[in-house]
Model the fold of this input.
Amino acid sequence: MEQIITQAIIESYLKELIENTEVDVAICGAGPSGLLCGYYLAKQNIKVAIFEKHLKVGGGMPGGGIMFNKIIFQKEVLYILEELGISYKNYNEDLYVADSIETISALTYKAVKQNAKIFNLFSVEDVVIREKRICGVVLNWTAVEQAKLHVDPISVVSKYVVDATGHDCEIARIVERKLGWISIKGEQSMWAQKAEKVILENTKEVCDGLIVCGMAANAFFGSPRMGAIFGGMFMSGKKAAEIIIKNLEK
Ligand code: 48H
Done:
């Protein structure tokens, strides 16, 4: 029986990995913005793979604020929470509290059920380019990266790449450092109201084929952080999906 268990795992995983070596959209990071983006893309039957460097998904959500696993949402995004089946409680006239574990579970479940494929333990270490367009990601096992082993990566080609890597906007930084096509301003200090307002404007294609969303979008454009409020992350992930859907229709 043992060898059958082994064969089943290897065979089914490799089948999915091979099927996802060419996708419409490669999303880097399975935090709130990346998962939302994946959910809305997959809902439109767009082929999407999400690469997450950690063992777990959810990015900054499980820790809530200072490890208190509650997160805050604004009234404007309650319709998304309802669509995903996430419960919330009213705190004051504008703000609502949700359980971060329930939020991650519901969001991940919905994204996966729509057919967004999540590959955890994969770090995006570079991008694939053609002329002046980003058209894929270069991947290695996070364990290889952490052990600093000299092991060559693999690539996944895509029509769009989404940088949903959070505060460090890791993919945009690679493009800035290696290709010089973009210039990152860097995240500013806490100003929740402003940060939540500008994140939608900041969610955009920053060079051909690369879209920044979530905290990466604010870091890219020199906008502030906001603490454990997640309405902006949800809206930003949704907007990134809408930009791509519109572009793919052209
Ligand atoms: C693969 C990678 C790589 C890589 C990183 O940090 P996140 O939760 O990002 P967002 O933008 O969806 O949400 C931000 C939010 O969680 C937050 O931090 C807030 C609201 N902060 C406010 C404040 O004031 O501090 O998720 C990013 C994900 C993580 O899971 C990373 O492990 C992953 O991306 N990631 N995955 N390849 N190179 N780099």
